[in-house]
Amino acid sequence: MIHSIKGVNGHIYYSSRSLYNELNLKTRYNDWINAQLKRLYLKEGDYIKVNNNSSGGRPPIEIYINIDAFISICINNNSNKSLNIIKNFIFNTSLKF
């Protein structure tokens, strides 16, 4: 399940970390998400950074992506898993309307 939040602009953003976990990738999350942002020319607005509260150490920064970035990342991942994520996401989202 992909976690989502509503941004201050009222748009829905999806957790890139949840997507990363669903894709079962072997690379480090930070390396992967930074590569996606760069490779797909994503800019502020396509994603937002959210500081999470933690109980010590450096607080992790979570990156949430909009629907266009979510789909672009899945398509460019070019795997059966990513295509299934898109299909399930579209099916589950369409049921809510």
Keywords:
97 residues, alpha+beta, 4 strands, four-stranded antiparallel beta sheet, single chain
Tally of contiguous helical segments: 4
Instruction: Measure the end-to-end span.
Output: 18 Å
- Sheet with the most strands? 4 strands, antiparallel
The Rg value, from CA coordinates, equals: 13 Å
Shape type = globular
Strand pairing plus helix content: what structural class? alpha+beta
* Total E-strand runs: 4
Task: Name the helicity range.
Answer: 40-55%
Weakly predicted, low-confidence segments: none
Determine the mean pLDDT: 86
Q: Order of helices and strands, N to C? A: EEHHEEHH
Description:
By secondary structure, the chain is an alpha+beta fold. The protein is built from four helices and four strands. It has a four-stranded antiparallel β-sheet with strand order 1-2-4-3. Helix 3 (67-77) runs antiparallel to helix 4 (80-94). The radius of gyration is 13 Å and the shape is globular. The two termini are 18 Å apart.
Q: What is the element layout, followed by pairings?
A:
Layout: E1 4-6, E2 12-15, H1 16-23, H2 29-39, E3 47-51, E4 61-65, H3 67-77, H4 80-94
Antiparallel strand pairs: 1-2, 2-4, 3-4
Helix pairs in contact: 3-4
